[in-house]
Design goal:
Blueprint lengths: L3 E10 L7 E10 L2 E6 L7 E4 L3 E5 L1 E3 L20 H12 L4 H17 L2 E8 L9 H10 L2 E8 L18 H15 L11 E4 L7 H14 L3 E5 L3 H11 L3 H7 L7 E5 L5 H10 L2 E4 L1 H6 L7 H7 L3 E3 L12 H16 L6 H15 L16 E5 L24 E4 L2 E5 L2 E2 L4 H17 L1
Parallel strand pairs: 1-4, 1-5, 6-7, 7-8, 8-9, 10-11, 11-12, 12-13
Antiparallel strand pairs: 1-2, 2-3, 5-14, 14-15, 15-16, 16-17
Length: about 450
């Protein structure tokens, strides 16, 4: 792989162990990793000007449901709370098949890439009409993003007191067998891996305690990570208390779902005891501020979590509960919500950006990503701060206060995925046409 030199960037925010922020500096990419960061670097390879730009690590998305890109702004779900929102959308999702899963994943990952994301997780928990996890894995390969898909599942349908329709749930033995299959086939634990697989029963209200426990045992046997939804809103907490006789954090602890190999989505309603539990066990949290606002779930206690030592990253959540997938926008929203809740000095632009980069990478078990330092993966976002959105800013590095919401250039493993604000890895107009055709078919069914 040829070298690439990002030359004379106005600012490089490294997110390295020392928190260095460099000005008028260079960054050299070689063989998929950062070879050097500093002044006056040279190359015989390609040179990209960093003048007028801020360079950051690629952003990391810790929670998404990519398949939902085909069901944005659905009437009847636009103003519903979580449970009602799910009940409106489940029948539509039941009409999906492999094509819908593949194309929606492609479009969702393109949207993330344009917002500066280089590594994304995904939580796919329903498999109608022959759909499989690899539909999304193959889609990610066409886009070129680093991917951490999770094999989700639902096993308790309406007839057994669960929320999802019976047609969308699976037998638990079949779920566990398929988890083994996808881990064996697609999980790459190596440093620099482009695909790692996690295991992710959907939520406490859609799977049994037995499946939660068995999945935790399986994940540790296979050396993969665990993920689920937890304490998303008041309904979620009430369900846990009525069905399990305890709060969500205790439920997770009882079933082996705490530790540095676990990350939970949302955690809007964690109390002080649960925050302390997650901090002491190093259990991660995927904070999804826009989705939490969109569904009226509340403001997650991120300031309290971080102060206690809970690892926190950011997620855009599904495109049917956020209706967008802009990760730099998610970082800004996180910063603003913590200020609303705790005061204007509660979270700086730099801290929110740290959660969106290094914080998310650490939650996904990827210390090789999320920072710009020699030997780390060359996942790099370059932001043009000469445009309207940054005009008049006294501190262009404060991207989340005044800065672009789309990336100028994006590198993943040293390969340029976005050039001049355009995706390079596939034909976007063709993808949009195919995506819109599938969406219309779903609307008309």
């Amino acid at each position: 792989m040829p070298e690439t030199l990002i030359q004379k960037a106005d600012t490089i925010i490294t997110m390295d162990d020392g928190g260095q922020v460099l000005h008028g500096a260079d960054l050299l990419i070689r063989d998929g990793v950062v070879a050097a960061v500093g002044q006056g670097l040279q190359t015989t390879g390609d040179v990209i000007s960093g003048r007028g730009c801020v360079v950051t690590p690629g952003l990391v998305n810790t929670h998404h449901h990519l398949y939902q890109n085909l069901t944005r702004a659905v009437p009847g779900a636009q103003d519903a709370l979580l449970f009602g929102w799910l009940q409106r959308l489940y029948p539509i999702w039941g009409r999906f098949g492999p094509d819908e899963m593949f194309v929606s994943a492609q479009l969702g990952l393109v949207e993330l890439a344009l917002s500066g994301c280089t590594l994304s997780s995904d939580h796919l928990y329903l498999y109608p009409n022959g759909s499989r996890l690899e539909d999304t894995i193959h889609a990610a390969a066409t886009v070129g993003l680093r991917f951490h898909p999770t094999r989700g599942a639902m096993s308790i349908g309406e007839s057994d007191g669960g929320l999802p329709p019976d047609a969308l749930v699976e037998q638990e033995e079949a779920i566990l067998n398929d988890m083994i299959r996808v881990v064996d086939a697609f999980h790459d634990p190596a440093e620099g891996s482009m695909c790692r697989v996690g295991l992710a029963p959907c939520s406490p209200f859609s799977v049994s305690r037995g499946l939660m426990r068995d999945t935790a045992i399986l994940a540790r046997d296979k050396g993969v990570m665990l993920h689920t939804h937890l304490a998303e809103n008041d309904e979620d907490v009430a369900y846990s208390e009525s069905q399990f006789g305890c709060r969500p954090g205790q439920y997770a602890e009882d079933l082996g779902w705490t530790g540095d190999d676990v990350w939970h989505a949302h955690c809007v309603k964690l109390d002080v005891t649960e925050i302390d539990l997650f901090a002491s066990s190093r259990t991660g949290v995927a904070h999804c501020p826009c989705s939490n606002c969109r569904l009226g779930s509340g403001i997650a206690p991120v300031r309290q979590m971080r102060d206690a030592g809970v690892p926190v990253g950011l997620g855009v959540d599904g495109s049917a509960s956020n209706d967008a997938a802009n990760l730099i926008g998610e970082a800004r929203q996180s910063m603003l919500l913590q200020r609303v809740q705790n005061g204007a000095d509660a979270m700086s632009a730099y801290e929110a950006l740290e959660m969106a980069t290094r914080g998310g990478a650490d939650i996904l078990g990827r210390p090789d990503c999320g920072r710009l330092a020699p030997g780390k993966r060359a996942d790099i976002a370059i932001w043009d701060t000469t445009g309207v959105s940054s005009s008049g800013s006294w501190d262009p590095a404060a991207l989340l206060l005044a800065g672009p919401t789309q990336v100028k250039h994006l590198f993943v493993e040293g390969r340029q995925i976005v050039r001049g604000g355009e995706i390079t890895s596939l034909d976007l107009p063709q993808l949009l046409q195919r995506h819109n055709t599938l969406a219309r078919k779903l609307m008309e069914a």
